[in-house]
UniProtKB/TrEMBL annotation:
The active site is at H146. Its EC number is 4.1.99.29. The lineage of its organism: Bacteria, Pseudomonadati, Campylobacterota, Epsilonproteobacteria, Campylobacterales. Coiled coil: none annotated. It comes from Sulfurimonas lithotrophica. Keywords: Ligase, Lyase, Menaquinone biosynthesis. The keyword DNA-binding does not apply. This is 1,4-dihydroxy-6-naphtoate synthase.
Length: 287
């Protein structure tokens, strides 16, 4: 059997969307799946180096790896009226050149932040350390992602919502593209199609058995949050819209790339649909 490694982040939505495979609810012929969890910027950096065949990435990274990876249509996370939060200590006022902690150079929130706050002084750190850095006064503000948007300390307050910044920059009510999966173009096309189908099925089954799967994750201490927070968080970032990309989600990704190109983050204008696995290939083979 071929061993296939899925690299994803340690946050609850990625774990939830993968573990139907880990628990044996979904499988693929002649394939043994294994997984590794690393913070999103580490995953982004390793994708830039082509280290993983199937890897979770920030959507903002994709144009940089378009020649080496195809974006998968499944296991996607978007914000719909919510998203990362810029937080600071309560009662403080930020200067124009405030010092801020971001979770990584290639994250979606970092790109949007840099467009909105060009004079801010940025430092990058693991997303798990950002809240404490603000509390300690090491930085004036930080952008919280993942579960921390629901659990941050009472001594902190929200300066701005990334959702509002996205709406201002995008100019309409598109969902906020945060993260997805990418698959190496070194994988044969027929096999890549099979991987995408398997991962889509895993997310679909996870959603259909959300209560049971959540309980198993909690019992095994595979997530960092309690049951009520997990339930709320999954409805934000591992919901029914995570199973397969919709047309409106693809429009949102294209708008993100348009903004990135306009502001000099990318060397070319990318349309996400042009880089996806061509599933029509399977029908041609059958024909």
């Amino acid at each position: 059997m071929k061993k296939t490694l899925i690299a994803h982040s340690p946050d609850a939505d990625d774990i939830f969307m993968y573990y139907a495979i880990k628990f044996g609810w979904v499988d693929m012929k002649d394939t043994f799946f294994d997984n590794i969890a690393e913070d999103i910027q580490t995953l982004n950096e390793k994708a830039l180096r082509g280290e993983y065949e199937i890897v979770a990435i920030s959507f903002a990274l994709y144009p940089h790896i378009r020649d080496d990876y195809a974006p998968l249509r499944t296991a996607v996370s978007f914000g719909e009226g919510y998203g990362p939060k810029i937080i600071k200590k309560k009662g403080t006022k930020l200067k124009r050149n405030f010092k801020v902690a971001l979770s990584g150079e290639h994250t979606t929130n970092a790109m949007l932040f840099r467009i909105k706050y060009p004079d801010a002084r940025i430092t990058y750190m693991n997303f798990l350390d950002i809240e404490q850095a603000v509390l300690n006064g090491d930085v004036d503000a930080g952008v919280l992602i993942h579960e921390s948007i629901l659990t941050y300390d009472d001594a902190l307050e929200v300066e701005a919502e990334m959702w509002d910044i996205w709406q201002e920059l995008a100019g309409n009510e598109l969902p906020l593209p945060l993260g997805g999966m990418a698959i190496s173009r070194s994988i044969p096309l027929n096999k890549a199609i099979e991987y995408e189908k398997t991962l889509t099925k895993a997310v679909d089954i996870a959603r259909k058995h959300k209560e049971k799967l959540s309980q198993m994750l909690l019992e095994r201490n595979l997530v960092r949050i309690d049951a009520p927070t997990l339930d709320k968080y999954l409805e934000l970032y591992a919901n029914d819209e995570s199973i397969t990309l919709s047309n409106i989600q693809m429009q949102a990704i294209d708008k993100l790339y348009e903004l990135g190109y306009k502001h000099g983050f990318y060397d070319t204008l990318v349309r996400v649909k042009d880089y996806m696995i061509p599933t029509e290939y399977e029908e041609l083979r059958k024909g």
